[in-house]
Fold this sequence. Notes:
Layout: E1 2-3, E2 9-12, E3 16-17, H1 27-40, E4 46-50, E5 59-63, H2 65-73, E6 78-85, H3 88-99, H4 107-124, H5 137-142, H6 147-157, H7 161-169, H8 175-181, H9 190-197, H10 201-211, H11 222-230, H12 239-253, H13 256-269
Parallel strand pairs: 3-5, 4-6
Antiparallel strand pairs: 1-6, 2-6, 4-5
Helix pairs in contact: 1-2, 3-4, 4-7, 10-11
Pfam family, one: ParB_N
Protein name: ParB family chromosome partitioning protein
Organism: Kaistia dalseonensis
Amino acid sequence: MSDVSKAPIRIQLADIDISQRLRPVDEAKALFIAAGMAKGGLETPIEVRPAPKKAKKPYILIVGGHRCRAAFELGWTEIDAFVLDISADEARMREIDENLYRAELTELDRAVFLAAKKELYEKLNPSTKHGGDRVSEQVAIFGDLAPRFTAEVTERLGYSERTIQRVVARAAIPASIRARIAGTRLANTGAELDALLRLSPDEQAKALDLLLSGEEGAPRSVAAAHAALTGARAAQVAPSDAEFDGLLKAWRRAGQSARARFIADLQRQGAITAATEGDDQ
């Protein structure tokens, strides 16, 4: 990768294409950032790449969607930016890595970013895909995750390969449904996302109509909404699933020191061994 601009340059906000982002802008977060920018200016320039010659705008945003939105809210017409000479795939990976490991990501956002990262790993490392010279029982069970991808996510998030598969699967929820639940508690509840995933797109939409209606007595869960529509008895979320989601959230918020102490304590209790401590953390 080579930089078009070694130092940031000032570019027009109107010249930046922000339509290709994986994660929509959180308006509340953008306003919070705007308050800081109003006092102290832009501390960290955004990152863009040159757009193809026939594109309507000369730049495509890589990193800094919330900063761009904040600048717009402040009435700015220009913003400082690093212009990077990188491919579309490299830009997408940079966007993913900038966001993926942040604690404030919802479970839905994390699923979308992980799925996109997995897809890029497989595109850049075709030999790791299912089949070819890597057909094995493990690949057949867990899918075609690239080893480097799995190792990185396990180290940064504490996920086992089975958990990665579970989270990545949630990105299959249609974009129209993801847009409807963004900013709601459903977007940050793994068990609810899994329940949505078990429904067809039409069933998902109808269940959300009930869940998000705001009416008194409206269902409080995807399972309850689906049961109300079908007349079936609502399936209860297994306590172990809820506990598992809670443990994952606590692990992700913890620092490396706390994680090491936690593992050491489990080892002292005989709950895990060095050979098993990475499983389903």
